[in-house]
Structures are given as structure tokens and as C-alpha cells.
Amino acid sequence: MSGDLPLSINIKEPRWDQSTFMGRAQHFFMVTDPRNVLLSSEVLDDAKSIVEDYRNGIVKPGLTEDQLWRAKYVYDSAFHPDTGEKMLLIGRMSAQVPMNMTITGCMLTFYRTTPAVVFWQWVNQSFNAIVNYTNRSGDAPITVNQLGAAYVSATTGAVVTALGLKSLTKHLPAIMGRFVPFAAVAAANCINIPFMRQRELKHGIPVTDEEGNRLGESASAAQQAIAQVVVSRIGMAVPAMAIPPVIMNALEKKAFMKVNLVFATPLCCALFPQKSSMKVSSLEPELQESIRQSSPHTTTVYFNKGL
After folding, report:
1. Quick check: 207 and 303 in contact, CB under 8 A?
2. Whole-prediction pTM
3. Where is the signal peptide (predicted)?
4. N vs C: which end of the chain shows fewer Cβ within 10 Å?
């Protein structure tokens, strides 16, 4: 084992201070880096090996601290934090910018006809369903029936919202029609995410103490986590779908809007840290009692909220 790199570096946590917005922003800029989509399986597996070996007290000869952190973020970008499984490529957060730029551009461009509205809302919700499943919190499996119900519910909600608002805006200024895709996306997020993660709402998500020791599962933590994710996802859509109609629809402005989406994704993710917390007193009574018996000094629990 090399003596150059100490084993005291805590790679279970992000490199930057997650109690500040800038620290969270720096963290999510790394997590959502689109270049990670292009990494080969060999690079991902090598990063996984470096991270897992380091956690087990094994340091690769010649490994530097910067290389360790780079491996950690490559690992985090491709492997689920709770299950450890390699995530679907288009469901990873590093795919958010290129995928959302394409889909958002099409929704804002092709919104005038009913078939176009239906098609692009279906495409968007199909993509969102993959993202929500891929970035779910916890390690419990979700059934095919649950996946299907969430997908159908969200897609139906988005299409109904889009068509309903489209009909209402026929007699309003043309610019109002540009807000229809955003309203549909916001409504669909409020449906899609809770449905896709309904098992967490029913059975709870893992909560841990400050050292990462698992204390149990909490549905209250799941409710907080899902609410934070819904707000973040709607926030992601604002720069690309709600602001441009206010400014203008000119082609040259669309390029500006797309550039902003690169920054919007990590900044909106940074609204809440990925590892959220809540007081033990806010948990279910039976879980509170269990924690008091097993870890009496613990007053705050932590959980992965998902993305």
C-alpha cells in the first residue's frame, strides 16, 4: 500500500461543504457533467475499483487525492448510491443536460398542434420515468405494475394538462401558448415522481446516523425527500421553459436559453443537498423508539433524497 495517500479522506461525502449553496452547486456540477456520459465501461469499472478498494483500506500505488476524488465522482455519476448497480445511461444525471436540451427545445418549438403536444409530452414523460426510476432513493425493488402505473399516470396528467391549457389559451395572446409546455411539465412532475417512488412513501427509505450506520426505514423521510426532488425538478424547467417566453421567441435567443440549461440543472439540484436530514422527533413514533434504544445519542438522521 502506498504511503502517499492517507486513508482518512471521507469519500462517502461530497468534496465540498454541503451546508452551503455554493458547495452543493460545485458538487452537482461534477455529478451532472455531460462528459461523463461518454466514459467507457472500462473507465467506470476502474473508478468503481478505486473507490471500493479505498473504502476497504487499499490504496492504488501512485494514486493522488485529485485522482481519488475524480474516481469518486465518476463512480457516483454511474452507480446508484444505495444499490450499487450501474444506472441506465439516459437515466444518469450526467445525461440530463443533453437530453433535456433536446426534448425541451422540441416541446417549445412544436406546441401549436394537438398531435405535436401529445407526442412530445409522451417523449418527455417517458424520459422522466426512466430518470425517476434510475435516481430513486433506497434499495428496495419496484414492481413492473408500479412502474406501469406511474408511467401511465404521469403521461396522462401531462397530456391532459397540456391540451387543457392549450384550449384555454386560444383566445389569449400568442405568447401564453409558450407557457403550456412548462405548466404540463410541472404538473407531470407532481404526478410522476411520487408515483414512481410510491413504494418509498409506503415502506420508507433508509435513514442513518452521522456515521452512516443504518437505523431503519422512514416514510416521513421519504415524503420530505420526494417533495424536495419535485421542487428541484420544476426549478430545472424554469430557465428553459418559463423565462424565454417572457423575453422573446427569436432564434438567437434560443441559443442563449440552451446555454443556460447547462447551468440550470446543477444549480437547481443544489437547492437541496442529496444527503438530506431530519430530526428524530419528526420520524414515525415506532422508529423514534427504536432509535432511542439502539442509538440514544442520535438526534438527527440522514438519508439519500434521490435526484
Report:
1. yes
2. 0.59
3. none
4. N
